[in-house]
Amino acid sequence: MQNWKLVAGLILLATQLAFTQVEQVISYYNGNPNIEAKFNIPFLQKLATRFDITGECQLQKIEYYVESLDEGNTFNLYLYDINEKMPSVEFFGPLSVTASQTGWNEIVLSDKNIILDCDIAVSFEIESTFFVSFGCEFNEPITDRLFFHDCCGWQPYNDRDVLIKITVSDVVSGINKSRQPETLSLLSAYPNPFNAGTKIRAELLKPQNISVYIYDITGKKIKTLLVENYINQSFELNWNGTNDLGNSCASGIYFVTVIGDQFSKTQKLSLLK
Predict the structure, then answer these.
(1) What's the CA gap between 137 and 160, in Å, rounded?
(2) Cα angle: 4, vertex 5, 9; to 5 degrees
(3) What is the model's pTM?
(4) Please, what is the end-to-end C-alpha distance for the chain in angstroms?
(5) 59 band by pLDDT with thresholds 50, 70 and 90
(6) What is the DSSP letter of 14?
(7) 93, 121, 161, 261: which has the fewest Cβ within 10 Å?
């Protein structure tokens, strides 16, 4: 009888360990909120910090430091892929965020099933004329991980570090992958590389709201191909290499991103002229 109890206890312990989320906090600042940095959309439309991701993991939460709530407390959160150490293609957002207090605040994302397998940038955008005062450091060493986005695209902003950190968990030990929504079975573009135009095809596994955008290599959104409230199954779209103004795009690398209710998928495109 005692042996059976011991075996049952070991099985229970093994089961609990198999589904225990091993969490890791990633940050790059020295840890002292010694000065405030105020930015708003006319000057710094988006501010982003690059994070190095090793292996596959799930993003659990983002923590950020607020110096003051006197002039505003709301902003939008975006996540970007990294290309050549710069923010590139948006794959999550906007998510409206309201800071509740001075000091550390957190954005819980564990219910979003955001799976990471490469470096990312966490970006904040101010929509209104009100400032949000985020904590920053000017202390050496500066990590060269901060960027801002203006009319010219993403630019390095290497004189400070924003007080921000992310928490990730190991996918293998912490997440039952069968719980992740499988809603897109195929995203393709043909021809690719292309000259006159390319046909973008997506196959959905269930009906959902769909948006399709084209981004340039700096991460700037240049073309909206589709915003549809309800798409039943598969669809095809043609992109002729023009932007939203109807102007021809230069030769180079572009990205098509399909965003659904519970997924975001990106395909690289090569435009040759």
Answers:
(1) 5
(2) 115
(3) 0.60
(4) 78
(5) very high
(6) H
(7) 261
